[in-house]
Amino acid sequence: MRDAVAELLGGPQPELSKTIRAALEGRQFGGILGEIPVLGGDYFASECCIAINLDRTQPPDQTRYVLLTTAAYFEFLPFDLVVNHGIAEETVDCSEVEIGKMYEVVVTTCRGLYRFRRGDIVRVLSFHNLSLELKYVMRAPKATGEVFT
Q1: What local confidence, expressed as pLDDT, does residue 146 receive?
Q2: CA angle 132, 137, 139 (to 5 degrees)
Q3: Cα angle vertex 114, ends 109, 116, to 5°?
Q4: How confident is the model at residue 147 (pLDDT cuts 50, 70, 90)?
Q5: Which residue range or ranges hold the GH3 middle domain (predicted)?
Q6: H helix intervals, 25-131
Q7: CA-based nearest residue to 50, from 104, 112, 86, 126
Q8: Domain ranges of the chain
């Protein structure tokens, strides 16, 4: 089987490999997309909808999300690598978060998922009306395999 596929493909193509690698290097995909804009989407998970992007014209790295507080009950674990080597023990709710601080998102859904740690670190930017405005920062460091609080 391997020989048949290799024959069909014509063997290794180092020049094509270099071209593809050069187009994919870095965070910009201009070599592939050209003038096609890359836009940020909404913040969804298989567990629930978390937040929506109100300005779809922004690139993904500048996307600001507004938390959908009616989609689930959200709690936040304070996150600071310097102070507590990552994530704190006690959660805070939407009314207790501080603007400018980072948190790991914890979700409780109406379908029975209880205090699920999403593993996403977000920064609270401000409020949009009465909802939190968030920016996705990174995935939480894996200290343990535990995902429920």
Answers
A1: 47
A2: 115
A3: 90
A4: very low
A5: 65-139
A6: 30-33, 81-84
A7: 104
A8: 2-33, 43-139
